[in-house]
Specification:
This protein is an alpha+beta fold. The chain has seven helices and 17 strands.
Length: about 290
Amino acid sequence: MQRLQKIIAQAGVTSRRKAEELILAGRVAVNGHIISELGAKADPERDRITLDARPLRRPVMPQYWLFYKPRGVVSTLDDPQRRKHVGEWFPARRGERLYPVGRLDYHSEGLMLFTNDGALAERVLKAGRAFPKIYWVKVAGRPSEAQLERLRRGIMLADPNHAQRTAPAEIRWLAAVPGKTSPRAVRQNHKPQRSEANPWLEVTLSEGRKNQIRRMFQSVGHPVEKLRRVRIGTLSLGQLNPGEKRPLQPDELARMWNALKPVKTSLHSPRTPAVPRRLDRPHSRRRE
């Protein structure tokens, strides 16, 4: 027996969180009985599970793809304004669909993960510091170290319902204008370009609030001119070009799952549990 929202997510319909919303809305039934409360379990092999009165598909083979979203593309599977959208690269096939894990805004470019594995998508979105996201950001003007330190420590950003301080972030000067050079090569050849009028910076976030990086730099008077996500946890943009996609390799998938493992604590040891393995960075820790 499995929780109903897990069965729905494994069928590739949507994420586990969205599946919970479908259940609460009374759109899911098991053996003819509408389920409208969370916690219900079912057997996907024996029970007849329906969504909007239609039988739920059997669990599909999980797929995992990396995609380089170009600028000028919305990160949704369709768009009522008829703008170019990522669904054009990931059309539904035989009723099955891959879904983006998180988003990038219209004017940003870079790495996105697509999957039909709702459980994994949920884990990635909730991973926080165990699976940080790295961006290359070009800003207007040259921020001072004091301004960057403010952003590193966290600032108050007003969201629709309340103001909340951003989580600590890592911000580093990039050695050169990002091109084909990998993030690691840039760090190894690290020479701060503080004399440049419109420098590139590397920003690492453990959270993903709407337009977060753009709003952060706008708050210190240096609006973002270009923004590229180059890494999501253990996954790297690599040699992908804008508009290109590729499936994850088995070793990449293994590293991702390893990084997403929950922290295990010992009942007999007072020591602080180890932090899950993060990126291989030479210094300390830590969506736009």
